[in-house]
Inverse folding.
């Protein structure tokens, strides 16, 4: 039993595992696509929120002068919704910029490394981490 356990332990430490796969969430294209989607979402929220806030403020002003309470309440809610949409767009812009910087600076790509084995050289893919620092 001791021999089997010792052989199993040695074999686990000496096995070479070259079957690394690329995590699709760590590629440059993934971060760029995520950045574009977040930027588009933030732009839509900002534009829609601004339009809602302006229209809500204009209709609030006219309905307040006329004395209609129900349309004043509706205009107030439209104004509030527009302001909230504008505020919600801020984290999307921040996340978009962060993901764009991540895509520009970091990439995980497999590169071929040459290993000597007896009298021949073997090419094996090795996952590499690349970091670019902009100066």
């Amino acid at each position: 039993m001791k021999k089997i356990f010792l052989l199993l332990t040695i074999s686990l430490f000496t096995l070479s595992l070259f079957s690394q796969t690329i995590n699709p969430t760590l590629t440059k294209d993934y971060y760029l696509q995520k950045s574009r989607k977040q930027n588009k979402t933030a732009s839509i929220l900002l534009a829609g929120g601004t339009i809602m806030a302006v229209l809500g403020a204009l209709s609030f002003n006219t309905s307040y002068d006329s004395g209609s309470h129900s349309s004043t309440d509706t205009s107030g809610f439209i104004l509030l919704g527009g302001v909230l949409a504008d505020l919600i767009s801020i984290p999307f812009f921040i996340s978009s910029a962060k993901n764009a910087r991540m895509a520009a600076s970091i990439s995980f790509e497999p590169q071929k490394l040459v290993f000597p084995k007896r009298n021949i050289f073997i090419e094996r893919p090795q996952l590499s981490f690349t970091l670019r620092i902009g100066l």
Notes: The mean pLDDT is 80. The chain has three helices and two strands. The two ends are 60 Å apart (CA to CA).
